[in-house]
Amino acid sequence: MAKIIVEKSPPLKGTVRISGAKNSALPIIAASLLGTENCVLENIPDLRDVDVICEVLTALGADVKRINREKIEINSAVIDNYEAPYSLMRKMRASFLVMGPLLARMGKARVSLPGGCAIGTRPIDLHLKGFKALGAEIQVGHGFVEATVDKLKGNKIYLDFPSVGATENIMMAATLAEGETIIENPAQEPEIVDLANYLNKMGADVKGAGTSSIRIRGVKELKGADHFIIPDRIEAGTYMVAAAITGGDVYVDNVLTNHIKPVIAKLKEAGVEITEDGDKVRVKSNGPLKAVDVKTLPYPGFPTDMQAQFMSLMSVAEGTSVIIETVFENRFMHVDELKRMGANINIEGRSAVIKGTNKLMGAPVKATDLRAGAALILAGLIAEGSTELNNIYHIDRGYTNIEEKFRSLGAKIYRVE
Ligand SMILES: CC(=O)N[C@H]1[C@@H](OP(=O)(O)OP(=O)(O)OC[C@H]2O[C@@H](n3ccc(=O)[nH]c3=O)[C@H](O)[C@@H]2O)O[C@H](CO)[C@@H](O)[C@@H]1O
Ligand SMILES: C=C(OP(=O)(O)O)C(=O)O
Prior knowledge:
The protein is an alpha/beta fold. It has helices at 22-31, 48-59, 86-89, 99-106, 125-133, 164-174, 190-201, 233-245, 261-269, 307-315, 333-340, 370-382, 393-398, 402-408; strands at 3-7, 13-17, 38-42, 63-68, 71-75, 83-84, 108-112, 137-141, 144-148, 156-158, 180-184, 205-207, 213-217, 226-228, 249-253, 273-277, 280-284, 294-295, 320-324, 344-348, 351-355, 364-366, 386-390, 412-416.
């Protein structure tokens, strides 16, 4: 099993370029099932999750060509299978995003139920509520969701929680429905806007993405489109925290700063110097870090996908901080691993109380999920000695060339097979 070794490193210095957003690329690749012509996607991150969703599309009959590691061409003129197999679905929850496009395109979809995972049970009730409202008949059994419909019909759908995946799945299904669909209380994440922009380039009529109500007028057909994926705000945030935790001076390049306002605000509160310059952010830190409280929320609140990394930072800040996780019910799996490295953290329900220490120690730890893995790398950069990270396949799901990017900033990090 491959491992990542992180040694105590000097303050990080230099420039790191941020890749395209995983959470945009995955739904956008899935949405390509809706078009009957060639789609060309650029700024695709080089990730295991992208490989998996491409395999899912191929299994459904689409012609997927990797032009290079950042560019994919997809032709879905012929889709001859409506079943997404368990063998692929189990590798990644986001594969469920093919359900909406399949239903819209073929009037039929049979998709393996995504499993729960380390960060919570992650139900799909809101996705199914949306499909039902559009007229689909849904059956769940034997580990699969099966949906059928003669013709999807637009409807008004209120989401009890602004679920990112449910908003995307319903939005994609509604593009080819008869009439108008309104999604009330949708997710407002930048990745939703990126998906809507792509769908509109394909010929859809989606308005209001990024606001509290999305209106989709169904069209007869979607065609092809070229699209450049937005930068990954979570990857950017992770390198910003890396600069802060090591007392470094790093330029994070290719960032849309509007997308990471809460992360910038919290870093500033913690005493980190941040200078924004177009699509670059300079992150400089040389004084002690101050403890600050954080509460995760749907966008535009502080992202849950940055919670673990911020906890590593607070583990070495001066004072006590409280981090409240409101999006996922079980996203504190990294806490026990950070404690193995000497962090002082107590969990009380959905809150973590972190008493800063000035000494973390390297230890063998495991990446319990993607962002937990990132958080442990960050802790490893300042821990005495060597940190050995196991279960790193989670990290490869979401970070492009992570060791190379960190090493280019002076970090001592390498992979052993
Ligand atoms: C590929 C992708 O984009 N992944 C992101 C997406 O995941 P994902 O789309 O799975 O996250 P959701 O926004 O759907 O989930 C948020 C909350 O809603 C709940 N829920 C969701 C759907 C549903 O039908 N019923 C229900 O109760 C979930 O259990 C969770 O507690 O948004 C999350 C929240 O920002 C991020 O952490 C993930 O990185
Ligand atoms: C939870 C995450 O992703 P996914 O929804 O793909 O599991 C994440 O990116 O942190």
